[in-house]
Amino acid sequence: MQLAGVVTGSTTFSNILQACPKVRDLEQGMNNHQSITERGFLLDVVVANALLDVYAKYGSPHKARQLFDKMTQKDVISWTAMATRYVQNGVLNEALRLFEEMPQRNVVSWNATISGYAQNGVLDKALRIFEKMPQRNMVSWTAMIARYAQNGFVEKALETFRKIQLVGVNPDSTTFVNILPSCAKMGALEQGIDIHQSIMERGLFSYIGVANALVDMYAKCGRIHKARELIDIIPEKM
């Protein structure tokens, strides 16, 4: 396009940059960075965010941060993208600092920070952030359940699941996949049966991950015949 003499606009650059991560073309992203700077399109927050995404995903947090600091305009997407990449690279203190400095926060920035600390086993800090979250959604609740379960705090996982029901949030398939192993480890058959009922009421048994987790729960709680019964009716076995 550029060789043919076609003038590249900010929208074109934004579209090209959004495609770079899909093909993992960091070199192409860097080449576009030079063209973007020369044409002054780095002032466009949409273009800058797209370039930031390329560096954050396939460059390094350091390169992404250099670009972030040079951006004259930043929106909630910019701040969240940078904080999220720090989280994914385990740079938690810097991620938290950015999170605290954000002029605005959306549900993605809250969930990314909570999940980052939880995934790295820093559950106390994840919980403190979770408790400050002004409006929790299923992603944030499920993140806490998953990390409690994966770090061996099965009672806390079950307690958090009960809280979901008390506040009227509807669990989704991912929530059930993460809570059922806690029932299995605790031998909490009665709660597992209640969860089974909730799964059937919501029509989620058709999800193979949910069905497998339910079978596993019954088997580990000693209800082998029930586990076998469910295996026979799983829509798609893996």
TrEMBL record:
* GO-annotated biological processes: RNA modification
The protein's superkingdom reads Eukaryota
NCBIfam families assigned: PPR
Coiled coil start-end:
none
Query: Which family does the record assign?
Result: Belongs to the PPR family. PCMP-H subfamily.
Where are the PPR-type repeats located?
Answer: 44-78, 106-140
Query: What's the short name of a Pfam family annotated to this entry?
Result: PPR
- Is Transcription regulation included in the keywords of this UniProt record? no
Task: Quote the protein name from its UniProt record.
Answer: Pentatricopeptide repeat-containing protein
Q: Which UniProt keywords apply?
A: Repeat
Q: Name one GO molecular function term.
A: RNA binding
